[in-house]
Amino acid sequence: MKYLGLHEIRKKYLDFFEARAHRVLPSFSLVPQNDKSLLLIGAGMAPMKKYFTGEAVPPAKRVSTCQKCIRTGDIENVGKTDRHATFFEMLGNFSFGDYFKKEAIAWAWEFLTEELEIAEEDLWVTVYLDDDEAHDIWHHDIGVAEERIVRLGKEDNFWELAVGPSGPCSEIYVDRGMAYSNGDPNEKPGDEGDRFIEVWNLVFTQFDKDEEGNYHPLDHPNIDTGMGLERMATVLQKTNNIFEIDAIQEILKSITQRAGYEYGSDEKKDTSVRVITDHIRAMTFMISDGIVPTNEGRGYVLRRLIRRAARHGKMLGIEGAFLYDLSSQVINSWNVRYTELDTKAEMIRNVLQREEERFHKTLEGGLLRLEEKMEELRAQKLQVLPGADAFTLYDTFGFPLDLTREILEDEGFSVDLEGFEAHMKEQRERARSARDDSDNIGWASQGGGSLLDELPPSTFHGYDTLKEDVELTHLLVEGEAVSEATEGAAVTVILEPTPFYGEGGGQVGDTGEVRGENFTVDITDTKKNKFGLIYGLGKVTSGVAAPGAVTAEVEGARRERIRRNHSVTHLLHRALKDQLGEHVQQAGSYVGPDVMRFDITHYEAISPEDLAQVEEEVNRQIYHSLPVRAEEMSLEEAKSAGAVGLFEDKYGDHVRVISMGDYSKELCGGTHVDNTAQIGMMKILSEGGIAAGTRRLEVRTGLGVYEYLRDLEEEQGEAKELLKATNVSLVEKVQSHLERQKEVERELEQAKAKLAQLEAGELGDQVQEICGINYLTAKVSGMDVDALRSMAENLREEHRAVVVLATVNGEKIQLVAASPKEAITSGVKAGALIREVAKAAGGGGGGKDDMATAGAKDPSRLDEALQGVAGYIEKMVSKA
Fold it and tell me: What is the pLDDT of residues 643-679, one digit of tens each?
């Protein structure tokens, strides 16, 4: 058996199959393309599923890949055992109607015995119970002894979907020797134990399974094989698990060095080391494929991995953010195959650093609260954290439920999941009832829209014309079809064909007029249902409306402004990708006549410098007068042409691609200008976050920019008048006022400090003593928390006393506690003390042993809370 490093095995495998006329493809993205059934790619064949089902044409009949994969179904076990992993690489060779069992088996044997030099007597194989063909190839052609061929049933050696391609499997095992035996003298592959390790699965896709469960032979059967790269490395390097193989062990060593810990000396810390070692590869590759931390979907998987690893780093004693630095080791090692890691290194580090720093803030407050709750459970001899408490941790402190569960389990507790879900359901219902239902107004007016659902899709002519003679096929009032509608009636009109664009793809619906022989309908909005039916919402403004021949005319000036705004989204998208990175994806948009809002995935606020560069680049492309071209093509052709789109979404066989010169190419069904020069100009008005990992830009174009500048000029004029800045620049005048304001604030702070000193001097007479500890409590007025901390610190040092001060602003209470060293030694810690005082006044908080702050909400209980300080001190001293 030949020792090979992880990266050597990968290269040797791909080179082997390339020499046998296979096209070696780069790994597909971890984000599934045009497949909503998957959250993340978790198998080598998953990205090529449509090649096997016949829905898409493969790039070659013979293909080989090393596919990066993520599986998170048993994430809780990762680290606790040395077998589970979230990230792994799957080597595979595939045949789409070309070679079959004979070649697949022969090449597998050749690669294992000649390239990897695994002894033939160490190799065992399994075949499907009824697959005599595979058995005979292994036995007669290859020469595997009968006793080393094991027949297994459908559960182990047959691959199938509910309907579609299916077939038997043959798995290859390596015998690791008696040292790993379970003690059974007849032990063989498929039995429990560690002696036989599966290294390669050959799937012979030879049947088409119908809905009745019948298997029909395929005219051109396929081959799908999978070899776990890390597992093969454990065999060749003779390690006990993946954490000991060369490239992964380097990550593990880096973590233990950073933590100052010797791996293998503590089981709990070993778990933390393995968690980080595994998760850092997963998160590095996920971010490189454009995934950013969010609160749902694959973004939540990433967030969970980062936060889980960060928490285990803290458990190892690693201070501050460290994952971003550790990712460099993954990048520098795995870039031999995945060159995109190098190009996206800065983005990977930035995303990790920001998310980890954000989590540390969450962790501090949440852990404190959870520790309090666990103390209460211990005191009450209970084992289950109530769902309401878990929900508070989630809702108030941003503490994920899975993290709460994991920490509780480590301490021997569990959580009431049903109670948590009940509170989550209540929250969702509150949000739903409060949500604006404006998006559904068009449907609400249709009495459920049942008739609209039954009508065929509309023929849309609005790309080419804004006015045409058409047929008003259906007229509805309050959801019911009518033969006529009188003046003033609110109606729904259905035209065939129609020049009106129905709201979709972020673009608002058209407005305009429908004119019959003796009536006019004012169209105030246009919608499009999921079946492709376009319908107008409006009001009869004259005459009696009725089905028949009409003239439909879109409001041209409004449509023109919408076209400009929609076209600029494409230029903006491309410019943002170029400036910030290819991870940027459109996350939503609103394209109206007056403003355009554009949402993107990005991990941090966009700097003013980057915004300026993006704005300049978009305007440059506008001034270049790029021709805008619309083309219909297949989805595969669009991908090959480099079109940008959310390919995990569901598209039809044909798509519409909008090209703007050679600069931008996107899938889009909206309306656009004919040339970028028609946009006129673009101005970014604002940028901000709307959710974790999502940024929103607000933009104006054309006349909208002129209107914005005009309004800005008027505001500046008013500001000059207010500041009396007629003879100097506005900036100079504002700077002068700000300097004066700072001077006044300094004077105010000095006055407050003097007042605090006077008040502190008076408070010194109120120092009391209990259990040998000096202490002082007081309410003071007119102070912010900084002044309160300063006063507490001064009193503590002057009187060597435990100090608890409070100030009330309206209904809010701010509390500060300070403890001298001698009190801390006796068990009186400021963080623990302030927590008790705040709780007594309807609040919470905490901090360090020598200084801590808190907040409370019930001023009526403040006096009682302060009076309880002596008792709290007495209790703390007695426990010390």
Answer: 887 644 555 668 899 999 999 999 999 999 999 999 9
Within 10 Å of residue 11's Cβ, how many Cβ atoms? 14
181 close to 193: Cβ distance less than 8 angstroms: yes
- Burial environment of residue 139 by CB neighbours within 10 A (0 to 12, 13 to 18, 19 or more): middle
Question: Strand 123-128 vs strand 23-24: parallel, antiparallel, or unpaired?
Answer: unpaired
Beta strands in 176-262 (DSSP E): 196-209, 215-228
Kindly report the number of other CB atoms within 10 A of residue 654's CB atom: 12
826 or 436, higher pLDDT: 826
In angstroms, the CA 27 to CA 291 distance is: 16
Q: What is the DSSP string of 755-809?
A: HHHHHHHHHGGG-EEETTEEEEEEE--S--HHHHHHHHHHHHHHHT-EEEEEEEE
Q: How far is CA 413 from CA 270, 388, 407, 680, in A?
A: 21, 15, 8, 64
- CB-CB contact of 607 with 579 (8 Å): no
Question: What distance in Å separates the CA atoms of residue 125 and residue 114, rounded to the nearest whole number?
Answer: 17
- Give the C-alpha separation, 239 to 243, whole Å: 9
C-beta of residue 576 within 8 angstroms of C-beta of residue 600: yes
Write down the residue that tokens 């096997």 correspond to. 52
CA distance 328 to 281: 10
- Could you tell me how far CA 185 lies from the centroid of its own chain? 50
Burial 171-197 (b: 16+ CB within 10 A, else e): bbbbbbeeeeeeeeeebbbbeeeebbb
| Model pTM above 0.85 | no
* Residue count of the chain: 880
d(C-alpha 804, C-alpha 866), whole Å: 8
Return the closest-CA partner of residue 348 out of 695, 691, 603, 71.
Answer: 603
Helix axes 608-623, 556-580, angle to 10 degrees: 130
631-634-637 Cα angle (round to 5): 85
Strand arrangement of the beta sheet that strand 654-660 belongs to: 628-634, 654-660, 664-667
Amino acid at 791: M
Q: Is cis: bond before 497, omega within 30 of 0?
A: yes
Which 3 state secondary structure label does DSSP give 18?
Answer: helix
Strands 654-660 and 628-634 come out as antiparallel
Number of H helices and number of E strands within the chain?
27, 31
Give the Cα separation of 99 and 95 in Å (integer): 6
CA angle 429, 430, 435 (to 5 degrees): 95
As a whole number of angstroms, the distance between CA 76 and CA 226 comes to 25
Residue 519 one-letter amino acid: F
Which parts of 377-506 are beta strand (E)?
384-385, 414-415, 467-477, 480-481, 490-496
Closest CA to 362 of 331, 326, 403: 403
- Exposure string of 790-802, with b = 16+ CB inside 10 Å and e = fewer, is bbbebbbeebebb
Buried b (16+ CB within 10 A) or exposed e, 38-66: bbbbbbbbbbbbebbeeebebeebbbbbb
The rounded distance, in Å, linking the Cα atoms of 687 and 336 is 38
Of 437 and 505, the structure prediction assigns the larger pLDDT to 505
Distance between alpha carbon 205 and the CA centroid of its chain, in Å? Answer: 35
Strand 62-70 with 23-24, pairing: parallel
Residue 12 burial by Cβ neighbours in a 10 Å radius (0-12, 13-18, 19+): middle
DSSP state of 663: T
| Amino acid identity, position 644 | V
pLDDT in tens, 498-556: 999 999 989 999 999 999 999 999 999 999 998 889 999 999 999 999 999 999 999 99
According to DSSP, residue 459 is labeled P
